[in-house]
Amino acid sequence: MADIALKHDCRGIDWNAVVRVIREAGLSTYSAECTQRAFEHSYVVVFVLNGSELIGTGRALSDGACQAVIYDIAVLPKWQGRGIGKRIMESILEKTDGQNRLLYASPGKEGFYEKFAFRRMRTGMSLFKNQREMQEKGFSE
Q1: Is 60 exposed, middle or buried (0-12, 13-18, 19+ CB in 10 A)?
Q2: Bridging pattern class, strands 100-103 and 67-75
Q3: Is residue 22 within 8 Å of residue 73, measured between CB atoms?
Q4: Is the CB of residue 55 less than 8 Å from the CB of residue 7?
Q5: 22 closest CA partner among 2, 6, 36
Q6: pTM, rounded to two decimals
Q7: Is the dihedral of CA 119, 120, 126, 128 positive or negative?
Q8: Which of 43, 54, 55, 122 could form a disulfide with 62 if both were Cys (CB 3.0 to 4.6 A apart)?
């Protein structure tokens, strides 16, 4: 994995490739334009490249002091199990150190985040714009 590199800015990113990585990893996706806007307005962004191929993503929103929320931790399936998701998480956790960090995991993926000491919340609430779909996917009651 000598060609694997982490990139922490949005310059030169192919937003269609970002959407593809997120979709193939099984996460909910939005248009390339919406995805670009979301990443560009994030506190931390991480893109993982194998040469010029985008193979992983992650980002966090934050107030820079107290609270951060982690989103879009995604690795192409053929690259999963090689420590790439771990590198994304470590990078985000380092850049949000000292803050409370929240996320919601895709159903069945909670164990990955437990390795980073994340614990399930008892009081988490949601108001998704697509409530029924998110309920069907197992994100809410």
Answers
A1: buried
A2: parallel
A3: no
A4: no
A5: 36
A6: 0.91
A7: positive
A8: 43
